[in-house]
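[Help] Beginner question about ligand-bound structures

Sorry if this is basic. My supervisor gave me a protein sequence and a SMILES string for pyridoxal-5'-phosphate and asked me to "get the holo structure". I don't really know what that means in practice or what format the answer should be in. Inputs are pasted below exactly as I got them.
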Amino acid sequence: MTVDISDIERILAEQNRWRQTQTINLIASENTPSEAVRRVQNSDFMGRYAEGHPNRDGQVNRYYQGTRYIDEIERMAHDEIIELFNVQQADVRPISGNAANTAIALGFLRGGDTIVANSTDAGGHISHGPVGVFGRRIQNRGQSLKLGAANSVNLHYLPLTPDHYHVDAQKTIEVIDQVAPQLVVMGKSLFLFPEPVAEVAAFCKTKNIPLLYDGAHVLGLVAGGQFQDPLHEGATWMTGSTHKTFPGPQRGVILGNMDAEAEKKYWPAADRGVFPGSSSNHHLNTLPALLVAVREMKQYGREYAAQIVRNAQSLGQSLDELGTPVEAREFGYTKSHMIAVNVAQWGAGVEVAKRLEENDIIVNYNMLPGDADPRHPSGLRIGVSEMTRFGMDERAMGELAQLMHDAIRGKNVKQQVNALRARFTTMKFV
Ligand SMILES: Cc1ncc(COP(=O)(O)O)c(C=O)c1O
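Answer (accepted):
No worries, everyone starts somewhere. Holo just means with the ligand present. The predicted complex, written as structure tokens, is below.
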């Protein structure tokens, strides 16, 4: 008798119905991959191993036999992502954005090193902070490390301009000059505006300091030419998630655009950081799915990313004009896929996010500048990548803004939300 999985299937069917047809999904780190991306994930690759690099030109780079077709797909994914981003180096093996960051930390940093990165209250990802992989580069079992301890990493934060949403390039250069870090990390999770990569990277080069750009959130916007292009502005590595604005499977990537000399100096750190650092076998069934998403972005990336940014700006403006305050008004709210909304006066982030979920609008609560308690944040982070993929445009953003505005104030708009979503269930840009 086969194992009964009907209860599991029922739960999945409910999830699919709820999140694919009823809810308006506005989590900035999420997306729905295309049918083709999903279809190619269910193959024999799911049970295989392929550590190392693909065998190439008769050279053995794998630690396992039986990898000929996996090698073919990995070579294609590697070469085609290089073409998409117009860069020189790629590692497609990290299994997520965090694993890509971990690879750089493991491969490049040593105990006692110093880094400069975004703090979490400036929107930085937790992996950049004291409890993340950068802050705790080396751990001893059973020992909790103090910042600056010999086997940890000294953390300094990127100074911000008074509006709190931009890194202050001049002050950053002064900090780098003072603390002489081994690594500078830019990019973040609440990521509304580009970072001053060109200015900071130019200074870092004079001091021989590499710059890591964490493009987890904005990878798809970079691919579509609608956000800064950090590797062409001078960043050493860019890490990214391949499932946020980049609408692929849940994986990660490291990219570089190094000349031969820089490659010798900085690429081996990424390479050994990935394997045997942060990944061994790398969830092979999702690798062909990455290749599909790369091709989709080659064909539709520019159009898709441009519509995402237009939608985010339009949602920001509509909410703000209705009277639900959106951050960074003086800068046009955003240049990315997300906006930050201040809901402090309606019960703050946690409560309002729950209220929105009761109305089938899915967002996450987020700290805003000046918030001290992460459990009581005053904001919401709202991303439009997924709903843009399902065809929502600026006009639909206007309708959505009104529903959000009402739901935030306690009105029940669930039926209208479901009706709005029902008009946008067919995927575009595929
Ligand atoms: C800036 C940043 N880096 C890294 C990550 C981790 O990415 P992943 O979830 O793909 O591991 C995130 C997650 O949202 C992020 O915001």
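A couple of things worth pointing out: The longest strand covers residues 237-241. The longest helix spans residues 287-322. Feel free to follow up in the thread.
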